[in-house]
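User: Continuing from earlier, I have the next pair ready.

Assistant: Great, send them over.

User: Here they are, in order.

Assistant: Folding the first of the pair now:
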Amino acid sequence: MISVRNLRKEYDEDTVALKNLSLDIEEGAIYGLIGPNGAGKTTLLRILATLLEPTYGRVEIAGVDALEEPERVHPYIGFMSDRFSLYEDLLVWEYLDHFARCYGIAPRQRRRLIDESLELVGLTPRRDSLVSSLSRGMRQRLCFARTLLHQPKVLILDEPASGIDPAGRLEFRELLKTLQSMGHTILISSHILTEMTDFCSHIGILEKGELLVSGPLEEVFQQLHGGIVVRVGLLGRHEQAARIARTHPAVRNVTANGADIEILFNGPKEEIPSLVKLLAQEDVPLIRVELVERDLESIYLRLASTEIS
């Protein structure tokens, strides 16, 4: 759905925001873009939204050249910036109606689409409220409703949950999953790394204008951790369990962790039962087997400290 090739953006000879970046995002993915301030995330998103021209490179969205035919690609894109302004003296529905007119939505469709967008973001009860009366989180939701109005195939979201409270972020996470199930492709940048693992299907880590890693979430985890970490709880005989585990062809390493052992498993999840069966056949006293949860913060910190093999 999104294809980027050799994208470069130079603001001046000393400031290069993107360095020959290439990226593919498949249809229906929720792609999380992470990186520190100044990594080039907003520059990339603004180029994809046709708000900024690159120095050179190629961008296609839904098969349309976004740099050569920006007006043709606009119906496919819904862009939400991390900074936005609202018309304070309008009612909520009037604000959305204004943008529905800008999008060229026919009068007979406007009310339906406005109501559907408000329902999706949980603002239906505030339909007739003044924009000036909305809280920061509600304003964020209203901006998101505007992004959804014309039913774009691709949503480009720059820090969309930055002003939303924890309960609102949970609702937002579920909304993203709903939109994915409706066929939307979503590219989202966020600093809330711990939450992105709950809804992203793919991730990319951007630093100093370069894409360090990109791909399906589980593949990135496995690539950077070198495998799946399986934690086994035991009632003793730890050395024997470790020795037996090492005989499995997919086991790369075994380490002690208190009363448990942690096994680095370099294979698909579907093969883990064979490891458990191997231990059980030798009467190892198993009391617990679990996969160790991994998060984007640990992934990012590992990348930032250049601990990639």
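And the other member of the pair:
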Amino acid sequence: MLVINESEQPEALVFWLHGLGADCHDFVPVINALDLKNFEFILPNAPIRPITLNGGMLMRGWYDIESLNIETHDTVGLEFSKSMLEDIIKKKINSKKSCPKIFIVGFSQGAALALYLSEFSHYNFSGVIALSGYLPMYNKKKYDRSSLYAIHGTHDDVINIALAKKSYSELIDNGSLKYFEFSMAHEVIEKEIFLIKDILMSECVS
């Protein structure tokens, strides 16, 4: 796990979840570009596990992926990673002098887990931002939902934008999720970084 801008009393805690096969160092350049010195960023590592879609190859993944069909889910893996992250969140909160606002940001598979946390975690987050991801499942019983944001590339060749939008449809229709598109592939671009910064700053003062 990597921590950036560690502080006894940060303005906010931002838990940043990497994508499949990456690690905690993957988004350091993006976080540096955000230039939010009063925000503490926590970048955990996903467990190393066999990924069925990749022939059982061992790699860091928040849960297993059996196919490109995002409507099938490794619920056991999602629950394991949710519990792991809730333990990290609890320890971080307990280490602070005051209770800061808490955000979850995730990319690709990390984005799916971030939204899963927003739906099923006992924590209520100040905001959740899903980058190039999708909603694994919809929990209609969660009424105290966090502020949810999703950003996707129109040319994403890893997670098809039509499938991603379909997974978000109920949240968009009921006004629970704000959705943005950029002309990009499965990546993070400069315009998107500006938007992420605006979201974090605005939700932190709201």
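Worth noting for the second one:
The first strand starts at residue 2 and ends at 4. The radius of gyration is 16 Å.
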